Amino acid sequence: MQKIQTDSTALREKWLLAQTGIQTNTTTVHGFSEKVLTEGGVYNGVWLECAPFEGWVYASQNLDVARANHDIFFALQKEDGQLPCFVLEDRVGYSQIQMVVPIARTALALALVLECETFLRGAYTACAAWDAWLLRHRNTLGTGLCEAFCEYDTGHDNSPRWAGLPRTCPDENVNLLPSGFPQLPFLAPDLSATVYGGRKALAAMASLLGLGDASDQWSDSAERLRRKINSKCFSEEDLCYYDRMATGELLRIRGDVLLRVLQEGVPDSKLADQLFSHHILDHRKFWPEYPLPSIALDEPVCEPTKTYNAWSGASQALTALRAPDWFRHYKRDTELRLLMKQWVKAIVNGDRFGQQIDPTTGEIGAPASYTPAMLVLTSFVTRLYGIHQEADGTIDWNAGLPEGAGSFEAEGRAFDGRRLSWKQKAGEAVALVNGVAQFRLLHEGGGCALRMPSNNLDAWELINTMSRTQHFSIALPNGELVWAGSLDSNERMQINSQYRETAVLATR
Q1: Pick from 349, 287, 339: which is nearest to 317 by CA?
Q2: What is the tens place of the pLDDT at every residue in 184-215?
Q3: What residues does CATH 1.50.10.10 cover in the chain?
Q4: How far apart are CA 484 and CA 472, in angstroms?
Q5: What is the residue-wise DSSP string for 168-234?
Q6: How far, in Å, CA of 161 to CA of 189, rounded?
Q7: Which top CATH class is 110-385?
Q8: Is 30 helix (H, G, I), strand (E, B) or coil?
Q9: Which pLDDT band, with edges at 50, 70 and 90, does 505 fall under?
Q10: CA distance 357 to 350
């Protein structure tokens, strides 16, 4: 578990409350003996939409719980391949698909950390069966895209996307399309993007398992699906992804659907830049004071002030928690830093760990004790000021101080067991591995990240995560200067191999 120490009393106290709350929300549910990290608040269980991803976010603190948050869905998978959509204290549900982040993607990340072929093989088998089930049961129009039958399929409770349409399938039977609604099923770009991301992960899993032909097949099917999403659900006219209704028209509501398509990397970098410029970073749409609203603020149907479980405009903790993956994928580190700082500010100043916040005021909504909000705080503080490690072993040393703080220290362990320490004061940071100083970073008081590959095969990257140009210098413990220079916002610089060898190989 990563520990922090800072002279920002408010942040330190809220961090400890989040850690305690996460542990309280780790408990057993129906049909599974191991403890899992539940959703918290009024949600006494785990959902396919979020629990595997939340488990992965928590992996740096508890690998057993991270694994259990995956194993529970695999253990309760039906023989025909259907995964449960939720597991509560008293029952298991199969009434909708309710998926967002692909469980295959988080299972792959966890398998790389666990270095466990048994887990990898089991996850591959389960996720391949789930993909086959979706193709059989959610492709009724034969397009190859994943279809949404009801509101709970996408987890967009109380969203204008589903206004006037059924929340559930008839008799809560996931196989039954509600009748009397000619616009159903939706060809859903977000569900299809989840399948796409799952197939990319399955290709990587198959490769790791030595299944070369299967890996190629998964990669090919993923690419075909990506093209279909872009051809069927993207509007060139207004640069946005929408549901295509069974009647053929697009449901033109700009909302979290777009964010979830970006989340899985469906748009290429050129299109993504356009989407960021046209939608994501527009203060009138998805970039208000507290990003990212669930419906663009300039949409007539947007209702951002609802305070309870409403994907109608409020900024959702789940959306924030998922943002680092796709912001980093599209090299938007500066914008990510701003998003994370605003969420940390709202939570530290608020009176609860709530499900959503008002995008313009930061007012926190109900319910309290919500696990994703606690994970937003702990993971964002780590990504802003502490040490963060990815599944591939890459370690980010994140420089900058919390608002009003004069110091910040972080301590934890890498996935391979090495002890990591990061000590900061104004404009200066020192990194230690197993108690031995590795480098000293000087900056102008703003944010930056020094990204260190685990196996030292590539150059380090220094990334300026501030919205202004900054000057940096990096020195070895003996004072030898590695590099000094200036970087613009979002600019990154690679440090050459001779210094990487000198500074990092000594930590092995």
Answers
A1: 339
A2: 999 999 999 999 999 999 999 999 999 999 99
A3: 110-385
A4: 6
A5: S-GGG-TTPPPSS-TTPSEE-HHHHHHHHHHHHHHHHHHHHTT-HHHHHHHHHHHHHHHHHHHHHHE
A6: 13
A7: mainly alpha
A8: coil
A9: very low
A10: 10
